[in-house]
Each structure stands twice: as structure tokens, then as C-alpha cells.
Write the C-alpha cells for this entry.
Amino acid sequence: MRLFLLAAAVLPLIATAPANAADVVDADVIVKSLRGVKHMSATPAAATPATPVPADAPAVSLLVLFDSGSADLSGAGRAQLDQLGSALKNPALAGAHFRIEGHTDTVGDDQTNLALSERRAKAVVDYLVAKFAVEAARLVAVGKGKQDLAVKTPDQTPEAANRRVVVINLDG
């Protein structure tokens, strides 16, 4: 439920894929969505896939496009990640840890979608570390597959809004 409440301002932007420059969520919007941190520990622990997510953690849902059926970023996907990378380098988010969740639509079987979403989440983390020098210990990649759909659809239904990356502030 937290995702839909906190990302409500962002989801309408991704519901009209395909993405182009006008559909890219700006770094300032991402920072505002990921803020809400009440206090930051002076020495927060590194994020791991098992790190629990607080129910009210600030989050943002972003349309990060990949080549079909792959974890290769498209040009539009890189444009969105450039905004995310800028946001994560913002002093307002300095030191915070983030869970990068990859999501798929309902096309394909569960196991294939889970593996694909994991590869996509890892591709996002790798991009942010390589291009923006975000410390790898601040990011954890988690594949969600068809879980937690943004738009409820039956199996085998392509829906661009479900093929997304959700960024959760674990320190929020």
C-alpha cells in the first residue's frame, strides 16, 4: 500500500508508455519522493536483500525501459537512471541506503519473470555505481517479478506500468 500512496504523483507519469524525454521523472521529484527520513543513523548498516523495508518507507516508482526480454538498458532507460543517479548524489539523500526493486508485467512464467527482474535490478545498481559512483554498499538489488503489480492485470497481459523499478529508502 505504501508504494501506491507515496508514488501516486509519479505513477501517472509512467502509465502512458512508451517513454520519451517528456516521460522521464526529474531528479528533484525523485529526491522529494525519497525524502521523509525522520533521522539517519550515523553509521547505518549496509543494505542486503534481507533488509526489512519499513511499512512507511519513502519510495518512488520509475519506468526504466529495457530491451524486450533482457536486462539491457534502452536509451530512455538510461535517461531515467541519469535522473535517479543525480538524485542519489543529492546531499539530501547522502548516506541513505536504497532497495532497487525490479518488476515485470504478467507476460511469461513466474520463474522467468523473477530471474529477469533480478537481472534488471542488478543492471540498475551496476549503472548507478559505474556512472555516478554511488557506493555499492548503499544499494541492494531485489527482483520482484510479477509481485506487487502497479496495475492489476490477468496473466499474459502486457502492461508497461508494471515493468518498472521501485526505489525504496531503507533509512526512511
Q: What stands out?
A: The radius of gyration is 15 Å.
